[in-house]
Amino acid sequence: GWARLVSLSLPDTTRDAAPSAFCTAQQMAEQLQVPESWIRDQARRGKVPSVRLGHYVRFQPAEVLAALRAQGKR
Q: Among 4, 56, 31, 3, which residue's Cα sits nearest to residue 43?
């Protein structure tokens, strides 16, 4: 549920990455321990921030976690 997602923190490798580091839907899903289809659906619905690069969709982990935490506080 949301409580589990809100309490997540980024792994050290992601936290130490450059702020502009992007990851794929698969990588984001692995970090959140959710199916890739879930993160893609959340991005399509505008519930988590994503960036379109042509037909590619990329995520910034810190922004995604911040959005999920904000949703959990509602």
A: 56
First to last CA, the chain: 14
Average pLDDT over residues 53-64: 94
- Taking CA 14 as the corner, what is the angle to CA 69 and CA 16, rounded to the nearest 5 degrees? 110
For residue 15, pLDDT over 70 is answered with no
Residue 72: the pLDDT is 82
Position 11 pLDDT exceeds 80: no
Determine the Cα–Cα distance for residues 39 and 25; give it in Å rounded to an integer: 7
* Structure token pair of residue 26: 């698969």
| Torsion on CA atoms 64, 67, 35, 57, rounded to nearest 10 | -50
Beta bridge partners of 51: 58
Tokens of 13: 């490798």
